[in-house]
């Protein structure tokens, strides 16, 4: 329902407005609803005549935006006037308060407004606040904001200039210091726990040309570990740089943490449109992990009995389409995989591999054991947090177990598959040597339902919870011995 009167005349450059309107329960195109609206004021065609326009609205709903209350005021003359805007609104479930003030004017016979943004405060999460007046220009010829200093995300932003020309081209330059990424969590939740504080600078222009640099100044990232105990990455340095020019986009990344270092660079064609999976990519990646022990804590299937060790290095050159890059040059030395519960220990490991899209190709993975070795080659599909794998394993007098009560040295060939968290094993193995000491009978034991205070629970095997299917021919040979419980069997 609308009540009142309004008059609109003149030209777009010199409009004549006289209004005193009230409206309620409006339903407008574009799913716009207004519970209450009041507009009053007068604007004369004479550029020197004073004017005043007032707008009050409440209960405005448009998609995800709900305006609880809005008050706008403009008064002065065409050549010089003041603008004020105050309001409360919600975007999704987030509440905000807005306060804006500006002053400026329209030159004679011009529709290009020029003036000063004197105040802009957005209270909420995240919020922003203008520290000092900034030059503002709005009109069909261009929109420009210059020399604007802000408080945002717990830090500061210096916007030297933002400019949009009549043809739609946008340019911008500025710098930022002390930005807390955690303040973006409500709108941009990151997959990892973090407390990063960033500095940066940027400059973009037509072409497109320009650069963006982000640098960590403080904070850390936590990786998900076992038993809901996140593991701090221990960042020392983190920097990302993006460069646009000559029809290409180039990026560099450098990370340094207590566990290792990573340096990467890459480039692809860039003409101002988003790349797709067919866009050709080229670059290099260097990774150095002096110790793999930390991976045992991060491995989703690992239990407390799993031990990893050794060094991993990669000097990768990648190329090909963005959706299926090819990478060469993955290697590892002195690798160690041990499960203390079962006694399995794979040491003196060496790795040679490459990446083909999401596939990790194991060209050669070797572990030494006793006087023998085990050599594997195959494919790991890195599709999820837990990869699928198909591997062929060749054992030559390899010592699988070597404990006081358990010894097993084997030779043979097996095919191992790990798909959908299930293990299947097939092939033929011969025991070159073996010994199993059976536990003594008659020793009293506590039931599984008895809990002894102060006693640490037995560590489960890292592989105990995995379903396993075995189709394995096992030849015990003539040097396999069972002992215990008063008898011995060869």
TrEMBL record:
Subcellular location per UniProt equals:
Membrane
What is the protein's membrane topology class?
Answer: Single-pass membrane protein
Q: Does the keyword Membrane apply?
A: yes
Q: What biological processes does GO assign it?
A: protein secretion
Q: Identify the main location.
A: membrane
Where in the numbering of this chain does the Translocation and assembly module TamB C-terminal domain appear?
369-486
Which key words are in the record? Membrane, Transmembrane, Transmembrane helix
| Gene Ontology CC terms | plasma membrane
Q: Which residues form a coiled coil?
A: none
Q: Would the keyword Transmembrane be found if you checked this record's keyword annotation?
A: yes
One of its Pfam families is: TamB
Which InterPro entries is this protein grouped with? TamB_C (IPR007452)
Protein name per UniProt: Translocation and assembly module TamB C-terminal domain-containing protein
What is the scientific name of the source organism?
Paludibacterium denitrificans
The organism's taxonomy opens as:
Bacteria, Pseudomonadati, Pseudomonadota, Betaproteobacteria, Neisseriales
